[in-house]
Write a structure and sequence with these properties.
single chain; 11 helices; 7-stranded mixed beta sheet; globular; alpha/beta; Aspartate Aminotransferase, domain 2; Aspartate Aminotransferase, domain 1
């Protein structure tokens, strides 16, 4: 049996309509968007417009022009962080962040451009909004928070932190790499100024797609500069969106896949997908609790989390556990620190890390039960 439980890295499989959309674009359209006026180029441009329109609907954004397309969540986060911050600015972030936030901030700090404060999570990955508020300084320009932890699935109190940011006049950036597509996101209700997302995880598209929602009035310096197909007579980047932030050729066939993925999600309903994944996660948590020598990290099993579970087997190396799961049982997982070392420090799993099981809309109860049976067998072998 082949069981894919690494959906936090990239989701697989994709809906059949996603494969079909990418294949159709590659075979029948193929042209660059926004560069010419022949029909294939215009149709390519319509793919990007449809992507913006659907993303705005999914995130309850005010209009499609508030959506900026990027190449992945890391690209989008760099675009937001380096496009917003100025010398002397201060940033508040948390220990649950991915390196896509922590490394850009550290790089800017080491160059003497900014300073930042990391608000520590507790040993279940939870963030206290009051600690975020207490970390704000007079020169705080940005608060950056991971919506759903890529290590243990803990859901951050985004709405509460967003209200704090709004009340204090601080820009609020949310990393939705693990939540866009399987968790309800309303950028207006949640007081989100900038939302970063990727297309290849719960949006069910392929790698090479991602982007930002920008609240009207948020102005970013260009992260990339170059060709846009507009105002080509100028030596400088156009000032208007999205061209100001979208230099270079778009991954148009990738966006065709994301468009199909979002349509699939909206047809089912984000709430329905979330409920299904939570039921599977509860089934997995309940089964793991019955297996001796397995320690599960993160929130209590009764507390709703994203479809992500991290564990270790007492006395066994996590890397070996991941290898044995793949080789003996065909179960694909992710081991180590998951590009989030501070999160593991909060959880008490640094530097060894954990074994991560991450589910998707396509994970089945049969796969969960097979994984639990395999883990019980593996525990008896390794310990």
């Amino acid at each position: 049996m082949k069981v894919y439980l690494d959906n936090s890295a990239t989701s697989w499989p994709k809906p059949e309509v996603v494969y079909q959309a990418v294949d159709r674009f590659a075979r029948e359209i193929g042209a660059n968007p926004g560069r010419s006026s022949y029909e294939s180029a215009l149709e390519s441009g319509r793919v990007l417009l449809e992507a913006r329109t659907l993303l705005a609907e999914l995130f309850h954004a005010p209009n499609p022009s508030s959506i900026v397309l990027a190449f992945n969540a890391t690209d989008a986060l760099n675009m937001a962080i380096k496009g917003l911050l100025e010398p002397g600015d201060h940033v508040v972030t948390t220990s649950m962040e991915h390196n896509s936030v922590l490394r850009p901030l550290t790089g800017l700090a080491r160059r003497g451009i900014i300073d930042f404060t990391i608000v520590p999570a507790d040993n279940q990955g939870r963030i206290d909004p009051e600690q975020v508020a207490a970390a704000i300084k007079d020169n705080t320009r940005l608060i950056a928070v991971n919506h759903v932890s890529n290590v243990v699935g803990t859901i951050a109190p985004v709405k509460e932190i967003g209200q704090i940011a709004r009340d204090r006049g601080v820009t609020f950036l949310v990393d939705a790499a693990q939540s866009a597509g399987n968790t309800v996101i309303d950028v207006q209700e949640m007081n989100i100024d900038i939302l970063a997302f990727t297309g290849h995880k719960a949006l069910l598209g392929f790698q090479g797609t991602g982007g930002l929602y920008l609240r009207p009035g948020i102005v970013l310096k260009p992260w990339r500069e170059g060709g846009t197909g507009s105002l080509s007579e100028l030596d400088t980047q156009p000032e208007f969106l999205p061209d100001r932030l979208e230099a270079g050729t778009h991954n148009a066939h990738g966006w065709a896949g994301v468009v199909a993925g979002i349509k699939y999600i909206l047809a089912i309903g984000v709430e329905e997908i979330n409920a299904q994944e939570w039921a599977l996660t509860q089934r997995l948590l309940a089964g793991l609790a019955e297996i001796p020598k397995i320690q599960v990290y993160g929130p209590d099993s009764s507390v709703r989390r994203g479809p992500i579970v991290s564990f270790n087997i007492s006395g066994a190396d996590g890397g070996q556990v991941g290898y044995e799961l793949a080789e003996r049982y065909g179960i694909m997982t992710r081991t180590g620190l998951h590009c989030a070392p501070h999160a593991h420090k909060s959880l008490g799993t640094f530097p060894e890390g954990t074994v991560r099981l991450s589910l998707s809309h396509f994970t089945t109860e049969e796969e969960i039960d097979y994984t639990l049976k395999s883990l019980a067998d593996l525990v008896s072998i390794l310990t």
